[in-house]
Amino acid sequence: MTSTPVLIAGGGPTGLMLACELRLAGVDVTVLERADGPTGESRAGGIHARTLEVLDQRGLADRFLAIGRKLAAAHFSAIWLDVSSMPTRHPYLLMILQAEIERLLAERLTELGGTVRRGAELTGLTQDADGVTAALADGTTVRAGHLVGCDGGRSTVRKLAGIAFPGTPATMTAMLADVVVDTPPEGRVFQVRTEHGAYSLLDFAPGWWRVMTNEYDRVADRDAPISFEDVRRALTRIAGTDFGIRDPRWVSRFSDAARQAEHYRAGRVLLAGDAAHIHFPAGGQGLNTGVQDAVNLGWKLALVAKGFAPAELLDTYESERHPVGARVLQNTRAQTVLGAPGEQTTALREVMTDLIAIPAANDRLAAMITALDVRYEPGPDAHELSGYRLPDLDLRVGERETSAYELLHAGFPVLLDLGHEDGERFAETARPWLDRLDHVTATGPKTWDVPLVGELDAPSAVLIRPDGHIAWAADPGEPDPAGLHAALERWLGPAE
């Protein structure tokens, strides 16, 4: 039997991001991936602004920007949203295929000294007060302090842990294929609705296209095989032509089934990504939500695994991320209904289009789809900034110009002292936690732009969690050492 502090089942974007977070924190981790090698399947096709910020917080965004294509828009059921005015350094969707995302994250994991154990399928698990024992298909076992299921919508970990997966069943059938197109339409064709459903043809890369079909009058057996001819027939029925599609690289089928794990934690077993929530891929939120799950969980799990924080810290992963997943299920259900054929739906879409033309409505939906508006529960009497993600501020640290997100590259929490007279009191309060905290004194802008809130006066200091969210803040002249002490103890564990 081998052993590891943390075992991750699933080597997709969520599992790889979580493994990178743990290795960055100095925690050994084993990643099990059932597939023998990279699938090469393109799958999801974009990274939204908040996920790009998360990557920027680790110094990784440039790797993705180098190979992706920027699109200054998002959409709500194919009604376009303008994201160019969002207060972020990344006011766009980065079009990049999941296969490339996985490759880049796997490369980063290798740099951090981690590996993926491929051809390894988890088939059983038992847990006790001290850890989890996972049984593999090859007859071996792995002992771990914690097990995280990042193993997709049909998660074996979730089922073995006995975690319920309630939700709504499929009401329609969608198919996808990456193909060559002999007679492509002019320009991009995105969710064109007809009396038989909807279709899209998107030129993702030179020489091949992605075709998608949505049929609202049938529900396929999710276990039935799918062929390229199924996609061709559906496209011909919906669009009136197959556009000469041929030579498929990959075909897949999905639906609008929407389910969410009743709990994200059962003892020493946790869930993230599609193992915790599935939904119709409207708005391209699934992969992004999973990566953000991983970044919320990673630093907390590292603190627990290293003995700094009690296991109860892991309960905040569920309390913070479960509502985010529930909101994604809610808005994707709405988007599915808005895409259905019929004159009534067309009328509703026209009303929605008019509403989205109102800047405040556009911004509300854009902030939701991009996840820039996520605020974790700040608690009673909290500062008005608490719970929000930290804006990527331009800062001066000594003589050096830097950004707020550069301070998070090491994955440490940061006490950012913005140069007020209360600095010595902050330093004294934080001193017992300096084995797991960076204390930085800097100067920056006088106001901070928070999505959907607007300009707020800059605080005198903030405690920034490794995931970039604000755990505590104080205004000039109100140092609040007791509040800082409580926040440090809550999020970083008791002082040594």
TrEMBL record:
Residues 4-332 form the FAD-binding domain. It comes from the Bacteria. Its cofactor is FAD. Gene3D superfamilies: 3.30.70.2450, 3.40.30.120, FAD/NAD(P)-binding domain (3.50.50.60). Coiled coil: none annotated. It holds the Pfam family FAD_binding_3. InterPro entries: FAD-bd (IPR002938), FAD/NAD-bd_sf (IPR036188), RIFMO-like (IPR050641). Keywords: FAD, Flavoprotein, Monooxygenase, Oxidoreductase. One of its GO terms (molecular function) is FAD binding. This is Monooxygenase. The lineage of its organism: Bacteria, Bacillati, Actinomycetota, Actinomycetes, Micromonosporales.
